[in-house]
Amino acid sequence: MAAYPAWDEDGARLIIAGLSHLEGAALPILHALQDEFGYVDPKAVPLIADALNLSRADVHGTISFYHDFRTAPPPRRIVKLCRAEACQALGCETLAQDLARDHGIVVDAHARSQDAVVETVYCLGNCALGPSALVEGELIGRVDANSVAALCGARQ
Ligand code: FES
Protein backbone atom coordinates (compact mmCIF):
# COMPACT_ATOMS: atom_id res chain seq x y z
CA MET A 1 0.00 0.00 0.00
CA ALA A 2 1.09 3.57 -0.45
CA ALA A 3 3.24 5.07 2.25
CA TYR A 4 1.67 8.17 3.71
CA PRO A 5 3.47 11.19 5.10
CA ALA A 6 3.16 11.82 8.81
CA TRP A 7 0.35 14.09 9.93
CA ASP A 8 1.34 17.67 9.31
CA GLU A 9 -0.82 20.51 10.55
CA ASP A 10 0.42 23.05 8.01
CA GLY A 11 -0.27 20.62 5.18
CA ALA A 12 -3.72 19.95 6.59
CA ARG A 13 -4.42 23.68 6.79
CA LEU A 14 -3.51 24.07 3.12
CA ILE A 15 -5.84 21.24 2.11
CA ILE A 16 -8.66 22.68 4.16
CA ALA A 17 -8.12 26.20 2.82
CA GLY A 18 -8.09 24.90 -0.75
CA LEU A 19 -11.48 23.23 -0.42
CA SER A 20 -13.36 25.29 2.14
CA HIS A 21 -15.08 27.41 -0.55
CA LEU A 22 -17.00 24.34 -1.81
CA GLU A 23 -20.61 23.79 -0.97
CA GLY A 24 -20.76 21.05 1.66
CA ALA A 25 -16.99 21.26 2.00
CA ALA A 26 -16.66 18.97 5.04
CA LEU A 27 -16.77 15.72 3.06
CA PRO A 28 -14.36 16.75 0.31
CA ILE A 29 -11.97 18.04 2.97
CA LEU A 30 -12.15 14.84 5.00
CA HIS A 31 -11.58 12.73 1.89
CA ALA A 32 -8.66 14.90 0.83
CA LEU A 33 -7.07 14.65 4.29
CA GLN A 34 -7.48 10.88 4.31
CA ASP A 35 -6.07 10.63 0.78
CA GLU A 36 -3.07 12.67 1.85
CA PHE A 37 -2.31 11.21 5.28
CA GLY A 38 -4.11 7.86 5.20
CA TYR A 39 -6.44 8.94 7.99
CA VAL A 40 -8.11 11.99 9.49
CA ASP A 41 -6.17 13.00 12.54
CA PRO A 42 -8.39 14.20 15.42
CA LYS A 43 -6.35 17.41 15.37
CA ALA A 44 -8.06 18.22 12.05
CA VAL A 45 -11.45 18.57 13.73
CA PRO A 46 -10.98 22.09 15.17
CA LEU A 47 -9.25 23.22 11.97
CA ILE A 48 -12.20 22.10 9.84
CA ALA A 49 -14.75 23.44 12.31
CA ASP A 50 -13.09 26.88 12.31
CA ALA A 51 -12.71 26.98 8.53
CA LEU A 52 -16.33 26.00 7.85
CA ASN A 53 -17.90 27.75 10.81
CA LEU A 54 -19.20 24.45 12.15
CA SER A 55 -19.14 23.08 15.68
CA ARG A 56 -16.55 20.46 16.52
CA ALA A 57 -19.45 18.11 17.27
CA ASP A 58 -20.70 18.58 13.70
CA VAL A 59 -17.32 17.61 12.30
CA HIS A 60 -17.01 14.64 14.67
CA GLY A 61 -20.50 13.57 13.65
CA THR A 62 -19.58 13.59 9.98
CA ILE A 63 -16.41 11.58 10.57
CA SER A 64 -18.17 8.95 12.64
CA PHE A 65 -21.20 8.72 10.34
CA TYR A 66 -19.09 7.64 7.37
CA HIS A 67 -17.34 4.40 8.26
CA ASP A 68 -14.83 4.96 5.52
CA PHE A 69 -12.94 7.54 7.53
CA ARG A 70 -10.10 6.34 9.72
CA THR A 71 -9.05 8.37 12.73
CA ALA A 72 -5.76 6.55 13.30
CA PRO A 73 -2.93 5.80 10.89
CA PRO A 74 -3.66 2.81 8.68
CA PRO A 75 -1.72 -0.41 9.04
CA ARG A 76 1.52 -0.50 7.13
CA ARG A 77 0.28 -3.44 5.10
CA ILE A 78 -3.06 -5.09 4.39
CA VAL A 79 -3.13 -8.74 3.38
CA LYS A 80 -6.43 -9.79 1.85
CA LEU A 81 -7.16 -13.46 2.41
CA CYS A 82 -9.80 -15.16 0.30
CA ARG A 83 -12.32 -17.16 2.30
CA ALA A 84 -14.82 -17.89 -0.45
CA GLU A 85 -16.01 -21.35 -1.36
CA ALA A 86 -13.17 -22.63 -3.53
CA CYS A 87 -10.53 -21.39 -1.12
CA GLN A 88 -12.50 -22.91 1.76
CA ALA A 89 -12.31 -26.25 -0.03
CA LEU A 90 -8.55 -25.74 -0.25
CA GLY A 91 -8.08 -25.03 3.44
CA CYS A 92 -8.38 -21.31 4.07
CA GLU A 93 -10.29 -21.81 7.33
CA THR A 94 -7.59 -24.12 8.71
CA LEU A 95 -5.07 -21.52 7.55
CA ALA A 96 -6.90 -18.81 9.52
CA GLN A 97 -6.89 -20.98 12.65
CA ASP A 98 -3.19 -21.80 12.26
CA LEU A 99 -2.42 -18.15 11.70
CA ALA A 100 -4.05 -17.24 15.02
CA ARG A 101 -2.60 -20.18 16.96
CA ASP A 102 0.93 -20.20 15.59
CA HIS A 103 1.49 -16.54 14.78
CA GLY A 104 -0.99 -14.60 16.90
CA ILE A 105 -2.50 -13.02 13.79
CA VAL A 106 -6.28 -12.89 13.94
CA VAL A 107 -8.03 -12.41 10.62
CA ASP A 108 -10.32 -9.38 10.63
CA ALA A 109 -9.08 -8.11 13.97
CA HIS A 110 -9.88 -4.45 13.54
CA ALA A 111 -6.70 -3.01 14.95
CA ARG A 112 -6.18 -0.49 12.23
CA SER A 113 -2.92 0.99 13.38
CA GLN A 114 -0.91 -2.22 13.59
CA ASP A 115 1.92 -2.91 11.22
CA ALA A 116 -0.17 -5.34 9.23
CA VAL A 117 -3.69 -6.70 9.20
CA VAL A 118 -5.27 -9.66 7.46
CA GLU A 119 -8.74 -9.04 6.06
CA THR A 120 -11.25 -11.46 4.63
CA VAL A 121 -12.26 -11.07 1.01
CA TYR A 122 -14.50 -13.26 -1.09
CA CYS A 123 -12.89 -14.54 -4.27
CA LEU A 124 -9.82 -13.06 -5.85
CA GLY A 125 -10.38 -14.86 -9.14
CA ASN A 126 -7.57 -17.29 -8.41
CA CYS A 127 -9.75 -20.16 -7.26
CA ALA A 128 -7.76 -23.03 -8.79
CA LEU A 129 -4.63 -21.96 -6.94
CA GLY A 130 -6.19 -21.29 -3.55
CA PRO A 131 -5.98 -20.49 -0.80
CA SER A 132 -5.35 -17.10 -2.33
CA ALA A 133 -4.13 -13.83 -0.93
CA LEU A 134 -3.65 -10.33 -2.29
CA VAL A 135 -1.04 -7.98 -0.92
CA GLU A 136 -0.07 -4.64 -2.39
CA GLY A 137 -1.73 -5.56 -5.67
CA GLU A 138 0.09 -8.88 -5.97
CA LEU A 139 -2.00 -12.01 -6.18
CA ILE A 140 -0.45 -14.99 -4.41
CA GLY A 141 -1.71 -18.55 -4.66
CA ARG A 142 -1.39 -21.59 -2.44
CA VAL A 143 -0.67 -19.59 0.66
CA ASP A 144 -0.43 -21.21 4.08
CA ALA A 145 -0.27 -19.77 7.59
CA ASN A 146 3.50 -19.38 7.44
CA SER A 147 3.48 -17.56 4.13
CA VAL A 148 0.66 -15.24 5.22
CA ALA A 149 2.57 -14.47 8.42
CA ALA A 150 5.63 -13.73 6.31
CA LEU A 151 3.54 -11.42 4.12
CA CYS A 152 2.54 -9.57 7.28
CA GLY A 153 6.17 -9.13 8.15
CA ALA A 154 5.45 -11.63 10.98
CA ARG A 155 4.63 -8.67 13.21
CA GLN A 156 1.26 -7.97 14.74
S1 FES B 1 -12.60 -18.60 -4.04
FE1 FES B 1 -10.68 -17.86 -3.41
S2 FES B 1 -9.89 -17.00 -5.21
FE2 FES B 1 -11.86 -17.62 -5.80
TrEMBL record:
One Pfam family here: 2Fe-2S_thioredx
Signal peptide: none
Transmembrane segments: none
Keywords annotated in UniProt: Iron, Iron-sulfur, Metal-binding
Superkingdom of the source species: Bacteria
UniProt GO MF annotations: iron-sulfur cluster binding; metal ion binding
InterPro entries cross-referenced by the UniProt entry: NADP_DH_HndA-like (IPR028431), NuoE_N (IPR041921), Thioredoxin-like_sf (IPR036249)
Coiled-coil ranges per UniProt: none
Keyword Transferase attributed: no
The keyword Iron-sulfur belongs to this UniProt entry's keyword annotation: yes
Protein name stated in the entry: Formate dehydrogenase gamma subunit
Record organism: Bosea lupini
